[in-house]
Design brief:
Length: 506
């Protein structure tokens, strides 16, 4: 019987979610939804030394902001809990001991000082120390001790770790959904620690045990975990769980905007773009890491952008709704090579989503920004401005920055534009235009356009000769939408006031 698809996103609560980590969450989510399966959130907090307060809450909020609904796990519960590894501590020791009893793992009593001495001895020979089938023969572990001696050390409280006994000289032919067949020789692999001296499991043991108990069918994770694949497969084999072992898929890296190499927080700081979904404040240092949400990105745009970093549906389509992504997604269409992150493309995605938003929705966001700057305006006016300005904007903050002239008269005039468009001949023309505008009561676009156009034509002036200095007077610079739209929004009184000031100032 075919098993129901179950995938998990299993981050460590060590800080903010990097783009690469969040893309892993997204691809897991899309795969689950495409196949009618479950999306689990598990917190892998076995390394307590790196635990950051608030990180777990940050992870949950980031998923919520982007609309990635958790079916089971931390914050929602489920029948396979608890979903924090720190709360499953006793469980892991049980399975670690099971491996020792079956001969697939062993106790290691080597002190840190002894292991360091081994490393230095190898370095002097130009070699690298590996705890493996060869070196283990000469080290302090249960493979080299009598049972009674091992028991005595355990009863005395001697610190120990439990290591996996890696088979020697075995060629493993493993399947990865994205990369196809991958080969490993076990003689090149070390005996990884499965259970630490502090009573906590390592990632290797905990994730395999949890994936088995939580009935995970597919493990979709970053390519940095590909070297761990043979160990995890061998653990399934050692436990006798091969028949329910999940399929594996290792995602490619997200690369720097310039050249190769993994995208890092430093790249974002250097080039002025976020690498985290939401803002995060380090509780220890107080350092603030910028996020896409706070920088004005729509969650739909963020998701769309991220989905196309390393995947496409085989067509030229670039704009996908979440529903379309769920329908189209497959791991077979994920690229093997890394994908270069383009900050400008990210802005392009946000622009595409911004222009599809209703003027009412954008006005709600813009109004918040206006109020934060002490500007009060009526909703219809804000909506009209959003409609006029959104084609030119990537973010709602762009609308705010580019539309301030609608709310505040210019306090100064762009020197370059004033010099170019406000000539000596402009003064009598603007005086004449003022007289015409003063007589108009209906400031609708159609009416002012008709009256002023007829005047310009009758005087054989040319539109640029009139409208360019008029724009400088009203806006303060040669920018903005059509002038008849602008004066309709600001109204007669404000139009005349600004024009009069320009005549007195310029």
């Amino acid at each position: 019987m075919e098993r129901k698809v179950r995938v998990r996103f299993a981050p460590s609560p060590t800080g903010a979610l990097h783009l690469g980590e969040f893309r892993t969450a997204l691809f897991n989510y899309l795969f689950a939804r495409h196949n009618g399966g479950d999306f689990l959130l598990r917190i892998e907090d076995t390394d307590q030394t790196r635990y950051v307060p608030g990180a777990e809450e940050y992870i949950i909020k980031s998923l919520e902001w982007c609309g990635l609904k958790i079916d089971e796990g931390v914050s929602v519960g489920g029948e396979y809990g608890p979903y924090r590894q720190s709360e499953r501590k006793a469980l892991y020791k049980q399975y670690a001991l099971q491996l020792v009893e079956s001969g697939n793992a062993y106790y290691s009593f080597d002190t840190p000082e002894e292991l360091e001495a081994c490393r230095k001895a190898c370095e002097t020979k130009g070699e690298t120390f590996i705890y493996n089938s060869q070196s283990r023969k000469n080290l302090r572990n249960s493979l080299n001790m009598e049972t009674g001696e091992v028991q005595k050390l355990l009863e005395s409280g001697m610190p120990y770790v439990i290591r996996f006994k890696m088979p020697d000289h075995e060629e493993l032919h493993l399947k990865d959904i994205i990369r196809g067949e991958v080969k490993f020789n076990t003689s090149l692999l070390d005996d990884k620690v499965l259970f630490k001296s502090d009573g906590m499991p390592t990632y290797h043991l905990a994730n395999v045990v949890d994936d088995y108990l939580m009935k995970i069918t597919h493990v979709i994770r970053g390519e940095e975990w590909l070297p761990s694949l043979p160990l995890h497969v061998l653990l399934y084999r050692s436990f006798g769980w091969e028949n329910v072992m999940p399929e594996f898929a290792h995602l490619p890296l997200i690369l720097k905007p310039v050249g190769n190499g993994k995208l890092s927080q430093r790249d974002g700081n250097k080039m002025g773009f976020p690498v985290f979904p939401m803002q995060f404040t380090d509780p220890e240092t107080g350092e603030i890491w910028h996020g896409y949400k706070e920088d004005g990105y729509f969650p739909e745009a963020f998701i769309n952008m991220l989905a196309l970093l390393g995947w496409n549906d085989g067509t030229d389509q670039e704009i996908f709704s979440m529903e379309e992504l769920c329908q189209a997604f497959s791991l077979e269409r994920v690229h093997k090579a890394g994908s270069r992150f383009d900050p400008e493309k990210a802005k392009w995605f946000n622009h595409k989503y911004l222009i599809t938003k209703s003027d009412s929705e954008l006005a709600g966001i813009l109004n918040e920004i206006l109020q934060n700057h002490g500007i009060q305006a009526e909703q219809p006016k804000i909506e009209r401005i959003c409609g006029l300005m959104k084609e030119r904007a990537n973010f709602v903050t762009d609308i705010y920055n580019d539309s301030l002239f609608f709310f505040k008269a210019p306090e100064s005039y762009n020197e370059k534009d004033a010099k170019k468009y406000w000539k000596e001949e402009s003064v009598p023309l603007m005086q004449e235009l003022y007289a015409i505008l003063e007589k108009i009561d209906d400031y609708s676009f159609s009416n002012t356009e008709k009256i002023i156009s007829e005047w310009i034509t009758s005087r054989e002036l040319g539109f640029g000769k009139v409208m360019n200095p008029f724009r400088v007077a009203i806006v303060g610079a040669a920018k903005g939408p059509h002038m008849f739209d602008i004066i309709e929004v600001i109204g007669k009184e404000e139009t005349l006031r600004r024009l009069k000031k320009a005549l007195e100032t310029l």
